[in-house]
Amino acid sequence: MKIKFLLLFLFSLAINAYTQSEYPLVTIQDIQYIPDSLLGSDRPSPLNGDTVRVQGIVMVRPVIHPDTSRGVIISAGARWSVYIQDPNGGLFGGLNILQQDTSSAGVQNTFMDLIDTAQVVEFTGVIAEFSNNTTQMNILTNPPVPVQIISSESKRPDPIEITLEEFFTPEGSHSFKAEKYEGMYVIVRNVITSDRQSNGNYKINDGAGHSASIYNQSRYYKTGSSGIIPGYQPPLDGSFISYIRAIVTTRTDGYYLVPLYPGDVGPITSSPPIISNIRRNLSLVGPNEPVEISASVRDLDGSVTEAKLFYSVNGGAVDSIAMNRSIDDSLVYLATIPGVGDSALVD
């Protein structure tokens, strides 16, 4: 590893004078800043299409480990992707950096795969817009321009405290005034989950009508073989989470939050029970014949105090029956739906 960093240092010295004279050094704010008069829409970067140099502190490394585990952390196909931030924490101070080509001859001489979290690094690349709504830099690979490590900090910058309400206008539509947070590391507190998906995505809500999507761009938050953590599953719908730290990204349908590392999703303070193995005791039910329904009910953060079975007949009003705990299995609850007339449909 030390040899690799020595090569990076020597290679950077060799061409640093050329890149300094060829491409201007700009700030992340120069790339991202939109004046107040234009904040009502998702405007492209004022430097869109320009080739520039920019410095920022790395919020997530491109690969798990450059020597022992070279799988990417941020999902972007075969590309290397990191998020950087203004070390001083100024607004409009976040940016996504990508290396589009990681396999052609010589392109690894950018040494982007060697950078680490909390390093201040200089990148050279072209400013572009992803899907016309998220600003990014595509670093130069033809010829490859190596990254330059400026310094190393002790940790990532602390997240900026925000609320989900900031993502919306008073009328309830998405507010592009939150563009000042794009690419930045933020924290939202005391949220409720919903819309859980099997791939690891879900939504968070504040209970007042405001929400944001949790995007599993980091493979630490993907399920199945695509993920880094074996057996990872997103929180159950209705879970209360104490905090989520994440990078803000922009999409046409609103703002998405990207947790980066384990620990960026805080403890679940309460969660709904898991209901499974729902069964009925009869496969064929005759007219006016009662049916016993059983289900396994397990509470992850306490004990079940009450269970009810809800049903309706022929699409009518919903009725409920108290369920009783089985004497044979403390997780199983039972209730009996009274018999109904011939051809009736019970939901």
Give a written overview of the molecule.
The radius of gyration is 26 Å and the shape is elongated. With 347 residues, the protein is mainly β. The chain contains 2 helices and 22 strands. The mean pLDDT is 89. Helices cover 7% and strands 35% of the residues. The protein has helices at 2-22, 28-32; strands at 25-26, 51-58, 63-65, 69-72, 80-85, 94-99, 119-130, 134-139, 148-152, 160-161, 185-194, 202-205, 211-214, 240-251, 254-258, 268-270, 274-280, 291-298, 308-311, 319-322, 324-325, 332-337. The protein has 3 domains: 2-152, OB fold (Dihydrolipoamide Acetyltransferase, E2P) (Beta Barrel); 160-270, Nucleic acid-binding proteins (OB fold (Dihydrolipoamide Acetyltransferase, E2P), Beta Barrel), CATH 2.40.50.140; 274-337, no CATH class. The strands form 5 sheets. It has a 5-stranded mixed β-barrel. Strands 11-12-13-15-14 form a 5-stranded mixed β-barrel.
Runs in which pLDDT lies below 50 for 5 or more consecutive residues are none
Give a quick account of the main beta sheet: strands, pairing sense, barrel closure: 5 strands, mixed, barrel
- Find the count of extended strands (DSSP E, 2+ residues): 22
* Helical proportion, percent range: under 10%
Q: Could you state the order of secondary-structure elements as H and E?
A: HEHEEEEEEEEEEEEEEEEEEEEE
The oligomeric state of the chains shown is single chain
Radius of gyration: 26 Å
